[in-house]
Design goal:
This protein folds into 3 domains: 11-116, 3-Layer(aba) Sandwich (Rossmann fold); 117-150; 152-221, no CATH class. The protein has a 5-stranded parallel beta sheet, with helices on both faces. Strands 6-7 form a two-stranded antiparallel ribbon. 52% of the residues lie in helices and 15% in strands. The chain has 9 helices and 7 strands. It is an alpha/beta fold and 222 residues long.
């Protein structure tokens, strides 16, 4: 089951300040999570982010002491164990689960509560590729292949659909008519032509006209 977890403003912990940890930190930052990284050393990129106040760095050597780990992990939403020490990753996973915090141990799928998919994004469209932790390489290859299929036009069309859907909720009571109108908007040649020219607001205006027409038709039928 793939779930798009909302981590905006939520406390998240990354154990490990190396390349793997950096990758997870940047992914979390894109989702505006509140990120703390715990490690005895950090990549230069992470040190720069810490100096800019964008993340919190805790420079500390972590052993397998459960109490020490628990103090860091408690009250967080999720934890990434991203060290090159399998024993430490195992302990992080164990303590996180005892603390009822979901955890992902990088490259150790057998002790993960979730897998971190390969993700690409176009505007508000996010597509994740997951292989149950079996092959990050396959995930990456499929991500690159599929990313070519999702265009900027799709992203703009999403914005029109969101605008139209919210407007239609207040104007079209019949759910079938509302759905059919949204499909009409999706396939409308005038709207798509405006999106191809980057005229998002004009495309929204055309969608509003179609919704108004559908609303009037519904009223006359009633």
């Amino acid at each position: 089951m793939l779930i798009d977890l909302r981590v905006e403003g939520k406390k998240t912990i990354v154990i490990g300040g190396g390349t793997l940890g950096e990758r997870k930190v940047k992914s979390l930052m894109r989702q505006q999570a509140e990120v703390t990284i715990i490690s005895e050393s950090f990549t230069q990129a992470l040190r720069d982010l810490g100096a800019q106040g964008k993340v919190t760095l805790v420079e500390q050597r972590l052993g397998n002491e459960a109490t020490q780990l628990r103090n860091h992990i408690r009250d967080s939403m999720l934890v990434f164990a991203a060290t090159n020490d399998p024993d430490l990753n195992q302990q992080v996973s164990k303590v996180a689960r005892e603390s009822r915090v979901i955890v992902c141990a990088v490259d150790m799928p057998e002790i993960c509560d979730f897998y971190s998919p390969a993700v690409f994004q176009r505007g508000s469209i996010r597509v994740g590729i997951c292989t149950d932790g079996k092959s990050p390489i396959i995930s990456k290859v499929l991500k690159e292949r599929l990313s070519a299929e999702v265009t900027e036009i799709d992203s703009l069309s999403l914005e029109v659909q969101h605008h139209a859907r919210e407007l239609a909720k207040g104007k079209i009571n019949d759910s079938t008519v509302r759905r059919d109108t949204l499909y009409q908007i999706l396939n409308d040649s005038e709207i798509n032509g405006k999106l191809e020219s980057g005229k998002l607001e004009e495309a929204k205006t055309v969608a509003e006209t179609l919704i108004q027409a559908a609303s009037q038709t519904q009223s006359s039928d009633d």
